[in-house]
Structure formats: structure tokens, C-alpha cells
């Protein structure tokens, strides 16, 4: 009998812990059995948490050290706390990289959500010839690695720029369109199943009341699909924020007079290489700290939505 | 109402489809075409050379090495990440003391989830620079510093980490696992919590033990989630470009020392941008495409099980 009761510790925690154990004697034994496991699991979890937080704190500390302190020992403590390194990092354009990234993301996320939702809605809710073909077309694109398209894409954007300058290489609009196009497959795939799962009664009622198709979409279906839209939005924010290969290929300065439109990831890498040559490690660490802080703040304020949104986006 | 349907469908679909075809599908198709030419990328001239690029590719020892490294990543990365994430998810959900409310998750499980997940939102550039610091080959590197403090590493001969030919690729894997576990932990944790409690109660009434419930109930019901995770991690393993190209030694997109951490993506970029062999680079792109496709299909087929609704 006692083995049976011990086995209850194998139940994963549920959101509502509403079932009360019936006999207090058993309850005591649960606590003993859970105690060992509890110490064990806390140990491992704390160790991993330390592995995550440790390096991050080390970087922040590093931005207050000087070059010799960084080079001599990992355990050195900053001898005097100054914000010089932050000033130097900022001068190297971290702020500009941020602004560049925000401009591109504002455009590409708006476009991705708008176009993705429109396409997914029509494909999910209307029957017409070629519906399946277009849907599978989009789904297939979600599986291919971006390298496959990289070489022709580079020349396409380059040639486009010769005809229409603001669509070319090192142009915000060009990159916005590329980001959007490469985010569409997953967005359409995800929102398609979401729109399918919504009840059709509300939509039908709106149509009977004389609502137009597009008005039904924007005023009835979009508000109903809000939770799905938020999930896929967060997924896209992270995906595009972390892009490295596309800006590396498409956002190179074309000439000396061309303004630097580097995205943050790309700019930081350049900064890292420059710091390697000029050996300004505190400046580099300070740049990293500056780049991490806004992400940390946004993440901590929205962590519940981020986690829920990302997991539901992946599980679809 | 009915007569306005087609203009509406067309109006909603035309922009996304045109954009998608122009910037995604068309370049993909062009890659196949270019892979059959000796195009340099710099000039518009090119000659059709059939499958020469492919035969050259499979005699190229650097490419074959890169392919092996990608396959190693493909096996180790999903396995390690999923096992760790499952382990932590299990710890988070059943590791707590059992009080009056039955078995609880550990205290502070929300805190752990927030911390573990954080690397996921860091830009890959930050990861790269951060771990270049961690893996520094002198006393100033975090790992060498910590290990020599506890006496594992001799301060006179610190470990070479990324610069070590046999170890560089594993260092990259460490970063990928470090940053990936949190996401899959949250994923598995969410899936575990959606398993109805009645199933466990029924099993326990029949005399099942803790290990049995994990292997016979939790794991099968998580199977679909694990499958999804596997596919995502496989795609990540075929990528890894940003980290390898910036962290490993070697001029032009890393891959060193002496191609010991070379992966297909870095080789592709070097051939395309640095060596001006666009046709050859396209052939590599096609190979990567086929590997990814075959792997996704195979892994979905092999691991397919009957779907359990609950």
C-alpha cells in the first residue's frame, strides 16, 4: 500500500490543486517522499539558473572594468565604477542600430500581420479554385532554409535597387519587404488554422445584416482572432529581431557615402570585430549591456504573454 | 453578396501572394537553375555546366567535413536539448513538496521559467559576443577563470575552447543548448499541465509507480510536442550560421581552426561572397534543401504514433 501512495508523487502539478487528500497520515508520508525529490530538483534548477544568470551579470560587471582587469582574471572586480565605456559604446552607434532595427521592425511587423491575416482568412474561410494550391504553397515555404534563396535574393534586391532606388540594397523598405515575405509562410500557416477554429455564426449574422466582406474581416473576424494574432505577432517579433543572415547580406553599405543602416545584431557584431582590433573590451561589454537592457525590460513586463504566445504558436 | 466574393478574394490575396512569389518562391527556384552553371555572381555571364557543381561538391573534402559536422549537430543538439528540457520540466512540475493540495510544482517555478527562457529573447549577436568572452583562452575567460579557481584547469595551460580543433564545434553546441533549453522547457511544461489529472488517478488506483506514470502516461501524451520540438531543433541545427561564423577562428565566416568547425552554411557564404563562386554556392543550397526536407519528412514518419485526443 505504501508503494502506491509514494507513486502519487509522480503526478504533475495541475493548475487547480483542489482535491484534498482524505487521510492526514498519508499526507505526512507524501511530504517525506517529496522532500528528497524537492531538494534534488531545486539543486538542478538552481544550478541551471546560475548558468544562465552568471554570464549575463559577468558581462554587465565587465562594462565597468578596464582592459587589464578584463584580461587578467575573470574574477577581477571593477576598481572604480565609471560609465565611460557606455559613452564610448553609444558613440559607436548602438543608438542608431536600435533606431534602424525599430524602423524596419515597425514596418515589417505591420505588413506581416496585415498581409498574413488577410491571406490566411481568405484561404480559411472562402472556397474557390486554387485555394488548396495557394495554401500548400505558403506552408511549403515555412520548411525551407533561407540559404537556399540567398544568392538569387541578393541579386534580385540589387537589381530592383537599380530600377527603384528605395527598394535596393541597404534600404529600409527593401529589407521590410524581404522580412515580410519570409515571415508570411509561418504566419499564414498558423492563422489559417486559427481562423478555421472560429465559429462562423457571428460572421454569417454580420453578412446578413449587410456587412461587406472586408468590413466583416476587419470589424468582426480580427477582434475575434485577437489571441491568435497576438501569439503569432510575438513569434514574428522574436524571429525578426534575431535575424542576422538577411541583414548581413542585404544591408551592407554600398559606398562610403551610403548611410549605415545596420540592424542591431549586425551592428553589434561589427562592434565586436572593431573592439577586437582596438581592444576596447569594456566598450564592447557596455554595448552589450545597452543592447540587453531594453529587451530585458520588455521581456519582464510581457513575459507571461511571450511564453504563452510562443508556446501556442509552436504547438499549432 | 455572392457576386462580390471573387473581387474580395482577389483583393485580399494579391499582395501577399505576389510578394511571396517574388521574394521567396522565385529565388528558391532560381537557386536550382544557378546550381547548374558556373556563374561567378559578379558578371551576368554564365555557362550551363550540368551537374558538374554537384560532382565537385561530393569530392570536396571541406564540404564533406562540413556535412558531417552538420549531421553531428543534427543528432546531438535535439537529443541534448530535449532531454534537458524534459528533465527540467518534470522537475518543475512534480519536484515540489506535496502539501495539502496534492503534489505541487517546485516553489518559484515561475521564476525558474522566466530565467530559463530569457536567452531565447537575446539577439544572436549578444549570444555570440557573450560566449566569446566566456570561452576566452586566457585567465580572463569566464570558464577558464572558474575552472582554474576550482583547480581543474592549470592556469599555465588554460583550455583553448573554440581554438581547439576537437572542441570548437562542441563549444558552439554548448551555446545552442544553453539558449534553447528554456524555450522547450516552457513548451513541455505547458503540454504537461494540459494532461488531465484523471488519467494519473486511474493509473495510481491500478497501482502504477512514479516512474511508470512518467514513461507510460506523461511521455506518450507529450509525444506530439516532442516531435514538434525535434523538427524545430533540426532546422536550428542546419542553421547555426550566426554563431559559427562569428565565434570560431578563421578569416571570412569562421569555421576554423582548419575547417574543424566548418558547417555548410559558412562554406556557402564564403564561396558566394568571398570566392565569387555563386553557382557552386547555389549547389550547396540545394543540398541543404534536400537534407532538410528529407529529415523533416523522415522524422515525422518514423516518430508517427496514433494521435491521442484528450
SS element count, helices of chain B: 12
* Oligomeric state of shown chains: heterodimer
Q: Which runs of chain A of at least 5 residues are low in confidence (pLDDT < 50)?
A: 1-33
CATH level 3 topology of chain A = MetI-like fold
Q: Indicate the overall shape of chain B.
A: globular
DSSP E strands of chain A, number: 0
Short note summarizing the structure:
Chain A has 316 residues and is mainly alpha-helical. Chain A is built from 13 helices and no strands.
Give a structural overview.
The complex is a heterodimer of chains A (316) and B (310). With 316 residues, chain A is mainly α. Chain A has one domain (84-315): MetI-like fold (Orthogonal Bundle), CATH 1.10.3720.10. Helix content of chain A is 76%, strand content 0%. Chain A contains 13 helices and no strands. In chain A, helix 4 runs parallel beside helix 13. The two termini of chain A are 42 Å apart. The model of chain A is unreliable at 1-33 (pLDDT under 50). With 310 residues, chain B is mostly helical. Chain B has one domain (54-93, 108-302): MetI-like (MetI-like fold), CATH 1.10.3720.10. Chain B has helices at 5-34, 52-57, 61-94, 109-117, 124-134, 142-149, 168-193, 197-205, 210-239, 241-247, 264-274, 278-302. In chain B, helix 3 packs antiparallel against helix 9 (210-239), helix 5 packs parallel to helix 10 and helix 9 (210-239) packs antiparallel against helix 12 (278-302). The longest helix of chain B is centred in the N-terminal third of the chain and has 34 residues, at 61-94. The interface between A and B is large, with 116 and 127 residues.
